[in-house]
Amino acid sequence: MVIRLYRVVVPLLWLAGVAEGMPDPSQRDLLMREEALRQTGGRVVLTATELKLDARLHRLKEKELSAAQFPPAVHFFRAKPLIQESPIFKMLQRMPKGGALHIHSSALVSVEWLVKNVTYRPHCYICFTWDNSIRFLFSARQPAPRWDCFYWQLLETLRAKVGDPTGFDNSLMQHLTLFTEDPEGEYTSQEVVWQKFEKAFLAAAGLITHAPVLRDYIYRGLTELQLDNIMYLELRSGLSKTYELDGTVHEKVWSLKTFREVTKQFMADHPDFLGARIIISVHRAMSLSKVKEAVEEAIQLQKDFPDVVAGFDLVGREDSGRTLWYFREALSIPAATGAALPYFFHAGETDDEGTDVDQNILDALLFNTTRIGHGYALAHHPLAREISRKRNVAVELCPISNQVLKLVSDLRNHPAVTLISEGHPMVISSDDPSLFGTTGLSYDFYEAFVGIGGLKANLGTLKELALNSIKYSSLPTHLKETGYAMWQKKWEAFISEYL
Ligand SMILES: *[C@@H]1O[C@H](CO)[C@@H](O)[C@H](O)[C@H]1NC(C)=O
Ligand SMILES: *[C@@H]1O[C@H](CO)[C@@H](O)[C@H](O)[C@H]1NC(C)=O
Ligand SMILES: [Zn+2]
């Protein structure tokens, strides 16, 4: 293990020697130190070099806190250019961050690549839907009309006809991401932003589910992570069926095998990459019987591909979707049949306190979830917090997602401030990077470290957060050990850069 612990025994009795009603200053120091020990990374012992870097970070943070615009207090779409200028952000980009444990497959790769690379491939057709969205389809022949798409145009022809390829490409990108210059004006409510969110997923689907594209897409996704100094991925994926140019359709297992192959190839090309696994996810809008089938299928796939399949999750907006309890019969199948299917539930991505949806966190824990996706509502659930902490069920904190999807506007007010202050098991992730206009984890690390962690969060916090992503991953023990060793080497190189 890399973290060394030290213990300070703090006597909780008031010391003598208080003058004229004033609290004892040494007692005050002691309490402050005791409190600092409790935060994430509070017990990480830093080397002399690390302490130097930490002091530098602290000064940089003070500067950013007193700047005219404090990025975590601003909507990410406006804050992004400010963050890119931040020396803390630049350092975070270089920092080895371990694994990304909460990313959805449809939002893994930047939309620039989807548009500039994928839509320029031959045989790509586009159609504009009645509800101002787009669909793509690769086809050897003119595609037949379907219910959502009456008229398909060959993209190459259309692009030539429009004449302004840059403007045209930008408009395509607009359909594939939530990014906009006027987020407050355009997204007036959670409903509005979620609508655009689901539309963007549908728009990207026709590109990503084309079999030859899927290969390159996965490779490109791993590349983008590695460029941000991430060495491991747990990807939530529905394992869509894929299609060939002639209309041939591959079943889900083809996607899984492709994912495994591409990951192997990527690791052969990049020996310092630890690997990638899948959390099979189905949409919570599905019926109980469909989810039962999906659970049974996931059990089978996990048996057949134990090195790739990490477990199971339900995805889609919690507030408008079905609750975990609604699916209790389906989710009980593994326990009832003696099968092992780890769960990685999204839970508590809501601010509707006291509703049925709000119970998802406790239910996730009752179903022995391995981690909690978001856990935004944990603040309302002291018991769930206690259980999650006791059982080492880490929260996957995705700050930018929570802000863009309108749970919180000023990230200094994110409920995870409490979780960081008390060292709750936690990892940082990015949820839907392509939709939010981020790549890798550095932007989310920035928001968590500077905005949520505040001035108190230090280099020890960052170290523990990175290590947590290996500790709370689904990897077997021996691969975790490999991961720690790889990470440690990268970390030492990173620290020595700043000597
Ligand atoms: C698209 O990406 C693939 C693989 O990543 C690459 O071989 C190809 O040259 C790229 N094409 C364009 C038009 O950028
Ligand atoms: C959760 O774990 C407990 C303790 O190992 C076990 O008794 C219980 O059956 C599990 N529940 C489910 C739904 O898997
Ligand atoms: Zn998610």
UniProtKB/TrEMBL annotation:
Keywords from the UniProt entry: Hydrolase, Metal-binding, Secreted, Signal
Subcellular location: Secreted
Family statement drawn from the similarity comment of this UniProt entry: Belongs to the metallo-dependent hydrolases superfamily. Adenosine and AMP deaminases family. ADGF subfamily.
Domain of life: Eukaryota
The keyword Transport is assigned to this record: no
Keyword Cell wall biogenesis/degradation attached: no
Protein's GO biological process: adenosine catabolic process; blood vessel endothelial cell differentiation; inosine biosynthetic process; neutrophil differentiation
Principal location: secreted
InterPro entries: A_deaminase_dom, A_deaminase_N, ADGF, Ado/ade_deaminase, Metal_Hydrolase
Coiled-coil ranges from the UniProt annotation: none
Extent of the signal sequence: 1-21
A GO molecular function held by the record: metal ion binding
Reactions listed under catalytic activity: adenosine + H2O + H(+) = inosine + NH4(+)
Domain annotation Adenosine deaminase: ranges: 188-480
Name under which the protein is recorded: adenosine deaminase
Classification via Pfam families: A_deaminase (PF00962), A_deaminase_N (PF08451)
Cofactor(s) needed for function: Zn(2+)
E.C. numbers: 3.5.4.4
Domain Adenosine/AMP deaminase N-terminal: 27-92
GO cellular component, one term: extracellular space
